[in-house]
Amino acid sequence: MTDTDPQTEAIYLQMLMAREPSERFRMGLQMCEMARSMVLASLPNELSPIERKVALLRRYYQNDFSEAELARIEQALRTHFAITQ
């Protein structure tokens, strides 16, 4: 779904592709970091650091993994967090 007309979209794509690959890569990283910051800001403040990681995992990957897979990844996160703390 888009509300951008095809001509404007083509101009934007042309401008984007004119940038250096490293600049486009940095832009992508900045967008990912902004999205992560927005998700973290939407979480309750009283969550512990590991609970924030688990919430981030579930928010990002809830449609990519089954509940059983998410539970296994969550357990691995909790185990790793416990070992490193």
Map the helices and strands.
Blueprint: H1 6-17, H2 21-42, H3 49-61, H4 67-84
Verbal overview:
It contains four helices and no strands. The protein has 85 residues and is an all-alpha fold. It has two domains: 1-42; 45-85. Helix 3 (49-61) runs antiparallel to helix 4. The longest helix has 22 residues, at 21-42.
How widely separated are the two ends? 44 Å
The shape is elongated
Helix-strand makeup class: mainly alpha
Largest sheet: none
Radius of gyration: 18 Å
> What is the number of helices?
4
| Poorly predicted ranges | none
Number of strands: 0
Beta percentage is under 5%
Count the domains.
2
How much is the average pLDDT? 94
Q: Name the helicity range.
A: over 70%
Write down the secondary-structure element order.
HHHH
Keywords:
mainly alpha, 85 residues, 2 domains, 76% helix, single chain
Question: What is this structure, in a nutshell?
Answer:
By secondary structure, the chain is an all-alpha fold. The chain folds into two domains: 1-42; 45-85.
